[in-house]
Write a structure and sequence with these properties.
GO biological process, one term: arabinan catabolic process
Distance between the termini: 52 Å
Keywords: Glycosidase, Hydrolase
Radius of gyration: 26 Å
Structural class: mainly alpha
GO molecular function, one term: alpha-L-arabinofuranosidase activity
Largest sheet: 3 strands, parallel
CATH class of the largest domain: Alpha Beta
Protein name: XYL2 arabinofuranosidase
Helix content: 25-40%
Pfam families: Glyco_hydro_3_C
Number of helices: 7
Shape: elongated
Number of strands: 3
CATH superfamily of the largest domain: Glycoside hydrolase family 3 C-terminal domain
């Protein structure tokens, strides 16, 4: 109604939303809720009581599964405290999820995985604005864990039995100021180079889109310098 002008009134919007299957409203920044007009739509015959019941049923089914209507003693969620946050069990599960969700697009000459037994004496370079900047590793709407639980690529790779060197090249994802000599110097002396690039919330978030799909600033140049 407000942005796309698909509808003209709150009543019309409520009816269109329910007909489309929507059953929950997020009316951020609006003085009145659209779904407060559902009783009027029902009275006018724009929607049926059965449709209203069909839309409400999944909401209460979910709340029941969450135990919101149970006595607190019966609800397992009510016993959770801060000890569950960043617990070893949850951090191990997070690590497992990360490992299993990686997508490997290419593996030229079977370069990966890097095996610890093959690394002693090797020189490993990690470069790029995402190599050692904890702030850029989290996406939009992400929780911010305690610093001791944040493993940047540099911190993780330094746990391997290799001689690890580091060069950011540029300090933030927009990469407007790029130090080519810094990257070339570190990458040129390494046996293995890990390049860490991306966008981050400085470049794109909800309601902040990129103009194109290219890497920001000088990041592509950084990549080319690191692998040449």
């Amino acid at each position: 109604m407000l942005g796309h002008h698909y509808t003209r009134t709150f009543l019309e919007t409520a009816v269109a939303s329910m007909n489309a299957g929507c059953n929950l409203e997020l009316s951020y920044g609006m003085r009145n809720n659209v779904f407060m007009h559902i009783p009027q739509a029902l009275a006018m015959g724009n929607i049926t009581l059965q449709m209203l019941r069909d839309r409400v049923r999944p909401l209460f089914y979910t709340r029941m599964r969450l135990g919101e209507f149970d006595p607190p003693a019966m609800n397992p969620y009510s016993t959770l405290d801060l000890s569950a946050v960043q617990s070893p069990e949850h951090r191990n599960l997070s690590l497992e999820a990360a490992v299993k969700s990686f997508v490997l697009l290419k593996n030229v000459r079977e370069t990966l995985p890097l095996r610890a037994r093959d690394l002693p004496g090797k020189r490993l370079a990690v470069v790029g604005p995402f190599a050692d900047n904890p702030q850029v590793l989290f996406g939009d709407y992400a929780p911010v864990p305690e610093p001791r639980y944040i493993y940047t690529p540099r911190r993780g790779l330094e746990m391997l039995p290799a001689n690890v060197s580091f060069a950011a090249g540029c300090r933030e994802p927009r990469c407007q100021q790029y130090s080519r000599a810094e990257v070339v110097g570190v990458a040129g002396a390494a046996d293995v180079v890990v390049v860490c690039l991306g966008t981050g919330t400085d470049v794109e978030t909800e309601a902040k889109d990129r103009r194109d799909l290219s890497l920001p600033g000088h990041q592509l140049e950084l990549l080319q310098d690191a692998v040449q």
